[in-house]
Amino acid sequence: MRAMMAEGQRVLAGIPGVREVQAGSVIDQSAHYRYCWLIRFSAPEALDSYRHHPAHLAFVERPFRPMATDRMSADYQVADARTGVAALPDAASLAQTDGLAA
């Protein structure tokens, strides 16, 4: 698992628009999901090109998917001290764009 995660950090960090690739493991051993990835992008638009980049697709196909048979994925917009939480969408705007109930 560590070798796959190290390879992922190396490969994914080389994709244009990727600012940082972090991999982690769970502290609470009873948790369902044991490992995580946090990939930070230079701009929101970089996510789309990342999803279709050949290096990302090759890594996902092999070695990631065979080792991560039970997985979940979610994309988040985050706020830090510089951007502030006011930059995040509120529940009402999420309901309009994603079909979620507010």
Textual characterization of the structure:
The chain has about 100 residues and is an alpha+beta fold. It contains four helices and two strands. The radius of gyration is 16 Å and the shape is globular.
SSE string: HEEHHH
Number of DSSP strand runs: 2
**What is the CA-CA span between the terminal residues?**
39 Å
What value does the average pLDDT take? 88
Percentage of β-strand residues: 5-15%
Q: How does the major sheet shape up?
A: 2 strands, antiparallel
Instruction: Label the structural class.
Output: alpha+beta
Helix fraction by DSSP (H/I, runs of at least 4): 40-55%
The whole-angstrom Rg is 16 Å
Contiguous runs where pLDDT drops below 50 for at least 5 residues? none
**Could you say which overall geometry the principal axes of the C-alpha atoms support?**
globular
